[in-house]
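does this look right to u?? zinc ion version
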Amino acid sequence: MAKKDKDYYQILGVKKDAKADEIKKSYRKLARKFHPDVNPNDKAAEEKFKEVQEAYDVLSDDKKRKVFDRFGYYNDNLDPDAPFASGAAAGGGPSGFDFSGFSWEPGSTSSGSSSFRDIFSDLFGGGGAGARHEPEPPRPLPKRGRDIEIPLALSFEEAFKGLTTNITVNRSEQCSRCQGAGDTGGPVITCPSCSGTGQVLKSGGRLQFSQTCPDCEGTGRRRTPCSQCNGKGVTPKTEQVKVRIPAGVDTGSRVRVPKKGHGGRLGAEPGDLFIVTNVGKHPFLERKGDNVYVTVPVTVPEAALGARIEVPTVEGKAQLKIPSGTESGQKFRLRERGFPSLRNPSLRGDQFVEVKITLPRVVSEETKEVLRQFEKLNSENPRKVMGLE
Ligand SMILES: [Zn+2]
Ligand SMILES: [Zn+2]
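got this back:
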C-alpha cells in the first residue's frame, strides 16, 4: 500500500518540472550508486535500487508521468485524461482499489529511448547480447528431475531371497500451480535468492563458495516467484514407495525405481529412485560375486576314511561326501548352491567348501594309547620327501 505514497520526483532527487534529460542523468547516478553489483548483499541498497528503477520507469515515460502527476501514484489501469473518480482525492487512490498488484515491470516498458536496456548498456559498457542485465529473464526450459539415491541395509539371507518393502522417500513433484516454471508470468523483479547479484553462497563443509544462482540462472532477475513453490518449480512430497529388491543383490547394487526421483519441470520426466543395497555378513559363509565360500573342519578319521558330512549353505544344511584320503585344504564344489545371478535369474553361483583337518583332541589316557598304537602301525614320516628324519 505504501507504494501509492511514493514521491518519484523526490526519489530521483529532481524537481516536478524536471526535463527528461535531468531525470535520466539523476537516475543513472543513483542506479550506479545502489546497483547490487556495487553493494553485494546489501538489502537496503537493493530496496533503494528497486525504488529508483520504479521511479525512473514512470517518470521517463511521458504517459506514465502524466498519470503520476495527476493521481500522485501510477497504475497501468489509470487514464491520465479520465475525469476524477469520486473519492479519488489528489495523492490518494480510489477507496477499495487493490494496490498489491502494482509492480514495476521493465519488460513492459516500451518507450524506446528510455528503455532499461539502453541505460544499462551505457552504464556498464558493452551491453548487447550476453550482458547480465537483460530486461527479459531467461525463459525456464523443461528439465528432467534429479535422481535420488537411498541406501538400504539387507541381511545375507534377504539378499539371497530378494525382498519387497516400503521406503519413505523425500522427493518432490512438479508444482501444480506453475507447472514447474517457477513463476506464473508475473512482473520481473530482482531475484530474491541472490539479491540480483546472480551468485549465491554455498557451503561445503566449513568452506563457502559462490555459485551461479539457480533461480535466475545468474542473470539476477526473474519473474515474481510462484507462491506455491517459492519459484523452485517443484514442491516437496514425502512418499511411501514400494520397492522390489531382486534376489541376488550385493553390497553396492543399485536397484532402479523409475520416476520416483525428484519431479521434473514444465512437463519433463521425474528422475529415478535408486536403492543402493548394503548386504550384511554371514557368520560362516563368505560371498564373492555369485559364489559362496566356506571352510569346514573335518576329523582325521573322516578325512582318512571318507565320510558324508553336513555343511552350511545360505539355504540351510546340505550334504557333502568327502572321499577317503582327503587332504586338509582340499576344496569341493556344490553346484548351484550360490546366489542367483542378478543379470540372469535362472543362473546360480556355486558354493565352494574347503575342508580343514582338525587335530584329534586327547580326552583320556585311552585316546593317548590309541594314538601311540596308530603311530606304531603307521610309521610313515611325512618329512621324508625333504630328506629329513
Ligand atoms: Zn510453482
Ligand atoms: Zn538469482
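The longest helix spans residues 43-59. idk if thats expected tbh
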